[in-house]
Each structure stands twice: as structure tokens, then as C-alpha cells.
Design goal:
Largest sheet: 4 strands, mixed
Strand order of the largest sheet: 1-2-3-4
Structural class: mainly alpha
Oligomer: single chain
Helix content: 40-55%
Number of strands: 4
Strand content: 5-15%
Order of helices and strands: HEEHHHEHHHHEHHHHH
């Protein structure tokens, strides 16, 4: 495929402007959500879209290269202007940030599990934008022929992060603490490992209003390949703890420990049966990329 300059987006999603550009506002519900990529944010965005009265048809209109309708909820052009933080006036944002009647929240995740999820969905499965941005990098994963190849390529990416490769700039695997440094006004930080706690806070907040909906978190954007701490050997565990040291200390997560080789063997056995599905998804994502270019730019 010929990825001409006219068909590319400007750059990977930088963490430096993530809070301003990606946060969602529900004025009637007095809610602000800062989505931390790969920390359950797709599920929360679908919950918020329901609270805002937006159906799936709003997002089916997306012309982005998202590979599923589930992921189209991230296309901010499909959200009304009143729901997009960056479209509010600075004075409006300042007032919301200082108002204790608003719930301003986010969700974080252990860096080890989050990194695996991001690498798998964006790079291993070759989502169109990521194949375009990073496909020529030395660490870009190969089409896997074995579980061992997946492990080798994942660990190569971890080492690239530790070497401050350009990939570190993308918000999907940037430090969560650094992303949230621009959101000092948050009133609640939940954990992907404990969704019930976040739901409890949401329910208490919404109980003060009228027309209270049934607040549940749909399961969205689930990974095909399961996470196992055994994917990290002693070197990549050490490097991950180094890269995400601020997340570990600030967010209170324990450091990664090298995985048990027995667990890695069990993981490899379970993954071997879905390698053909991985290859099929890669082929479909390549086709979606081509159709996206045709729809948006009239070129391949």
C-alpha cells in the first residue's frame, strides 16, 4: 500500500496535549472524563455516550480508520461540541475545574498490563494509523508465526521504549502520571483493576440528579491475546519498571517481577491456537486502511 503524505494524519497522539484534546464533558450530568488510553476508557466512553443520549448511529458515521464501531467512540468529530473539553471556552473549563459539584475522573491501569494491551492492539494487530506511523521501525512486530515470535517482538518493543525511541511519544504507552499532570483538577482516579469502585462513585454522583440511568460498564475493546506477567523476563521487567517508575510510585502499583517460565509455557500453548485469527485480523486491518484512504482521499 502506498501511504502518501496526503493520506496521513499529522503525527501519533502526543501525551502533551492529551488531556485538553481528548477529555469528554457531560454538562447536564456535571461529569468530566479524562480517558487514559488502554485503561478501560473505551467502555467508559460508551457509558458516557449513553448518558449523553448518543446512540451507536452517531459513531457509525465516523470516517476515521478505527477498525470497529466500538472504537469509533474515540472519534471526537462524532461527539457534539458541548461534550468535547477542547471546544469549551477557557473560562468555562476553569469554572468546571474549580466546581466541587462536578465529578472529574479518570481510570488508570498497571503499566505492565497496559503496555501489553497497547502493543498488541496498536502494533501487533497493525491498526491502520500505527502501521503507517511506525511500520518501518526496527522494533515493529512481524506477522507472528509462533508464540515465541510474539514474545520476542514484544520484548524488543519494551527495549525500544527504554532507549527513548520515538514510539514513547504516543499516548497509548506514555506514562499515565505524565498524561495526568495536565489534569491536576481531577477529583477521582479509579483503577481498571477495580471497576466496581469507579461505578460506585459514578452512581453516588448521579444519584443527586434527576432521570438516573442504570450505570454499568460495558465490556469493550477486549484483547484477543491474554496478558501474563510471564511475558516479561528479568531484563524487560527491569526496563518497564524504569520507564514507568513514576507511574509505579505515584499511582501505587507494585513493580513488575520476572514471570515464571512455567506460566509462559502455558501462555504459549493457549496462544498457539489463535495465531490464524491474529493473521486474519491483520489482513482485515490492512483492508480497512485501504478503504479509509479511498473514502477520505480517493487514493490507495
Amino acid at each position: 500500500m502506498d501511504w502518501s503524505e496526503s493520506a496521513t494524519q499529522a503525527a501519533p497522539e502526543r501525551r502533551s496535549d492529551h488531556v485538553e484534546q481528548r477529555s469528554i464533558v457531560l454538562p447536564r450530568r456535571r461529569l468530566v472524563f479524562v480517558p487514559v488510553p488502554k485503561s478501560g476508557c473505551t467502555s467508559v466512553l460508551w457509558l458516557l455516550s449513553s448518558l449523553a443520549g448518543l446512540g451507536q448511529w452517531h459513531f457509525r458515521q465516523s470516517r476515521s480508520a478505527e477498525v470497529t464501531t466500538e472504537l469509533a467512540v474515540h472519534d471526537l468529530s462524532c461527539w457534539p461540541a458541548q461534550n468535547v473539553w477542547s471546544r469549551l471556552l477557557p473560562d468555562e473549563r476553569a469554572a468546571i475545574a474549580a466546581d466541587d459539584d462536578w465529578l472529574r475522573f479518570t481510570i488508570v491501569r498497571h503499566p505492565g498490563a497496559r503496555l501489553w494491551s497497547a502493543w498488541q492492539s496498536k502494533l501487533l494487530l497493525r491498526e491502520p494509523r500505527y502501521a503507517r506511523w511506525f511500520g518501518e521501525a526496527e522494533w515493529f512486530p512481524r506477522i507472528p508465526e509462533s508464540p515465541a515470535m510474539i514474545i520476542e517482538d514484544f520484548r524488543a518493543f519494551v527495549k525500544a521504549l527504554a532507549n527513548c525511541d520515538r514510539a514513547l511519544e504516543d499516548a497509548h504507552w506514555a506514562s499515565q502520571s505524565k498524561i495526568l499532570a495536565d489534569a491536576s483538577w481531577l477529583s477521582f482516579i479509579g483503577r481498571a483493576e477495580d471497576p466496581a469502585a469507579t461505578l460506585s462513585v459514578l452512581r453516588r454522583h448521579l444519584a443527586d440528579g434527576e432521570d438516573i440511568p442504570a450505570v454499568t460498564l460495558p465490556r469493550a475493546n477486549r484483547s484477543l491475546l491474554p496478558y501474563s506477567p510471564a511475558l516479561y523476563d528479568s531484563e524487560t521487567a527491569r526496563l518497564t519498571n524504569l520507564v514507568y517508575g513514576e507511574d509505579l510510585s505515584t499511582l501505587g502499583y507494585p513493580p513488575l517481577e520476572p514471570g515464571d517460565p512455567t506460566d509462559l509455557k502455558a501462555w504459549s500453548t493457549s496462544v498457539a491456537s489463535v495465531l490464524s485469527a491474529v493473521e486474519s485480523l491483520i489482513q482485515r486491518h490492512d483492508r480497512i486502511a485501504a478503504l479509509s484512504c479511498l473514502a477520505c482521499y480517493g487514493i490507495l
